[in-house]
Design a protein that fits this description.
Layout: H1 3-11, E1 15-17, E2 23-25, H2 30-36, E3 46-51, H3 58-61, E4 95-102, H4 111-119, H5 139-147, E5 156-159, E6 177-179, E7 182-183, H6 190-197, H7 209-221, H8 226-256, H9 271-288, E8 293-297, H10 319-323, H11 329-350, E9 364-369, E10 385-388, E11 400-408, H12 409-419
Parallel strand pairs: 3-8, 3-9, 4-11, 5-8
Antiparallel strand pairs: 1-2, 4-10, 6-7, 9-10
Helix pairs in contact: 6-9, 7-8, 8-9, 9-11
Amino acid sequence: MSTKKQTSGLSRRAFLRSSCGAALALPCLESLNARTAGSAMKPAQRVAFFYVPMGVVREEFFPGEQKNPEQSFAGSHAHISTRTLSPLDKMGAKVSLITGLARTWKDSADQHEQCGSCFLSSLAPGGSTTSRMPQGRTLDHIVAEQIGTGTPFRTLEFNCNPHKDNRESIHFDTISWYGSEYPALAMRDPQQIYRRLFTSTAAAPAQRITDLVLADAKSMSGRLGRDDRDKLGEYVESIRSIELQMDRLGGMRAELEKMNLPEPSAAHLPRGEYLRLIGDFMVAALQSGLTNVATMMIAPERWETPYRFEEISDKPLGHHGLSHRGWSEELRKIDEFHVRQFAYLVEKMDGILEADGTSLLDNTIFTYGSGLGNGAAHSYNRLPIIVAGSGGGKLKTGSHLQCKDGTPLANLWLTQAQAVGGERERFADSTGVVSELNV
């Protein structure tokens, strides 16, 4: 990274600060940009990934594959009209469903072990003679070379697995890699994430960032236009809501740990609330320019530790075990549950306006996906892939792209790498780009 470029990017970055060492990065404010750059800045391109383990129930995820007519769902957007995808109906015009994509399994490692760890990999299946798996530098770090050099964090990695009772290697629980066998360790504890994104000293350990910087926020408001004052107020309030939710879940976990439960206390936390909290951190980081590239792994592959999907069951459920039993309404509801959390973040990003009137979603390429097509069969073909946002107008949205079965997933990654300015002609085992996505 060149020092000149980094300094230039950070000189335009505004913070709210307190005397106690707290610093809250601000979103792009037109009033400040007009003073520092002479005109409103063009919004940055962002790239984010939302990884779901264990594949999906295909018959309820992909349009036209329902086994029975009564399982069909007539949504408001024909290209995503299934019950499982129904949470995305509202955002259908800014979402593309891509079917037919596949990965190649290297017959030298466990199927689940290769799912997340190789999902974003830049290494072709036969690209290494020393590694058991086709695992190289992942797409997030590659695109960060184009769009992440002027941000405080070149990439940020989030993981929604609060458990520590694993019996698997790190390959089952990591999707972001600097290179083969070099994992980018993700943040998974809300307190850890909070401290890393919003630094504070030990001088006021019990105080929250929003409490510490409110005076600075009030002072800054006098220099802002009306729209920017509203934007600043909404942003500070969004951080406040993160703090409140973090405190709520932390208190809930502390109480659970006092109980004699057969499962780890984290298994009884409301799963949706936990996922949305981690997702809110990611959105805040993208909005404020702390990073332009982020990954969010929803859960690890094959871990048997259960979760309480509060909209589905009062008792913790094991996703991996359910995935091996084939079709069930309970498993389908877990798929829909994950899509609902993705849809929540898509809608949230679309509601955040940038300086030029576009939304954070408009300037992001946000991909939902899994390294398995069908969990019970451990199949690597017909992967469930959804792309939201256009990356600043670089990609088309609002359609169902039916690629030829067996089209390499790497074709999509090559398309995204080129959309953010990469000049590479190949990515892993790509055979070209997904031309239907390009504007």
